[in-house]
Amino acid sequence: MEYRTLGRTGLKVSVVGLGTMVHAGHFGPMNDAESLSAIDAALEVGVNFIDTSDAYGAGYSEALLGKALKGRRDKVILATKGGNIMVGPNKGQTDFSASYIDRVMVESLKRLQTDWLDLYQLHNPNAEVIERGEVWELLARRKREGKIRYYGVSINKMEEGVAAVRGGRSDTVQVEYNMLVQEPAQELLPLAQKAEVGIIARVPLRRGLLTGKMTADDQKHFKADDVRARNFAGELFAKELAKVELLRFVVKGPVRSLAQAAIAFCFAHPAVSVAIPGARNAGQMRENAAAADIRLPLADLRRVEELWRGGFRSSFNT
Ligand SMILES: NC(=O)c1ccc[n+]([C@@H]2O[C@H](COP(=O)([O-])OP(=O)(O)OC[C@H]3O[C@@H](n4cnc5c(N)ncnc54)[C@H](OP(=O)(O)O)[C@@H]3O)[C@@H](O)[C@H]2O)c1
């Protein structure tokens, strides 16, 4: 496993991490034994960065991680998020007020069975929160007290990431970055690298598309509460599948699978410290972690960028 410094936090993170959204059943039914096997495998192969959120299964993923990490909490750099309301009358809305974040942070700590969080991320705040939110004072206070070591944002729009870097308060930015979504490489990643803001590349497999295993038929299996149901359907899905076919050329020599190439693509950018593919079981985790050994040839990286410039630009946000 290769380790990189996560921006100015100085944390040494594995270039391949683990995203735990899948463990809360957002990609179809899960069972805890499988999820736990993915977490065990991660630690066995040297993965030390795990990302979660209180939004995943309304706390389910955090609670499972809390159980899984009992007795070995210090082996991982644990990142969670808050700001999305998952229960009660305001379900579906966001709240980045200091009082709300303060409350849900305590709840996350309890579910994760830990006294400290290595990274606390605001979960998709808008530019106004990033630029003027009172929540930053709270985060600074909780950092001084040792409840959180560092804090940052997970963002959707490029301008939000740029605002986070320019604002100077965010230690990290988590953003979707993959072979099909290369917008971050245009401005955000170089800016973050210069400012020593750590970049966490999320959705590196474009929710499984970039494993190359999907076919048009798969849309039949995506039930309404599956995150893939909305976009992985009809013409939109057919277009994405056609793009994936054009990327298969990267699988050759030491690159044994498109999934590994897709993960390696993320950390081929020097601004990226860690890519966080989801892994539903130990097998996926091991395959993803092995991507750490892959260095894609420069010519292939250039071709992937050309394809993106020539029409890959993504037609939807995950
Ligand atoms: N707004 C935010 O902050 C936000 C949003 C999205 C994600 N995230 C974070 O980013 C993480 C990763 O994103 P993601 O889970 O949405 O998407 P992803 O990592 O691109 O895709 C994960 C899915 O791909 C499939 N997969 C993974 N490894 C595989 C392998 N080796 N072979 C075959 N299939 C494989 C699995 O689904 P199947 O087995 O069902 O195919 C898995 O659930 C999340 O877990 C979360 O931590 C954050």
Q: What is the CATH superfamily?
A: NADP-dependent oxidoreductase domain
User: Would you tell me the structural class of the helices and strands?
Assistant: alpha/beta
Give the termini separation. Answer: 28 Å
Largest beta sheet: what is the strand line-up? 3-4-5-6-7-8-9-10
Poorly predicted regions? none
- What would you call the shape? globular
Summarize the biggest pleated sheet: 8 strands, parallel
What's the overall average pLDDT, rounded? Answer: 96
Strand fraction band? Answer: 5-15%
Tally of alpha and pi helices: 11
Number of strands: 10
CATH-defined architecture: Alpha-Beta Barrel
What name is given to the CATH topology? TIM Barrel
Number of domains: 1
Q: Secondary-structure element sequence?
A: EEEHEHEHEHHEHEHEHHEHH
Helix content: 25-40%
- The level 1 CATH classification is Alpha Beta
Radius of gyration equals 18 Å
The distinct bound ligands, ions and cofactors come out as:
NADP nicotinamide-adenine-dinucleotide phosphate
Write the layout of secondary structure elements.
Layout: E1 3-5, E2 12-14, E3 18-19, H1 32-44, E4 49-51, H2 60-68, E5 77-82, H3 98-111, E6 117-123, H4 127-132, H5 135-145, E7 148-154, H6 158-167, E8 172-176, H7 188-195, E9 198-202, H8 234-247, H9 258-268, E10 272-275, H10 282-289, H11 298-312
Parallel strand pairs: 3-4, 4-5, 5-6, 6-7, 7-8, 8-9, 9-10
Antiparallel strand pairs: 1-2
NADP nicotinamide-adenine-dinucleotide phosphate (NAP) binds next to helix 10.
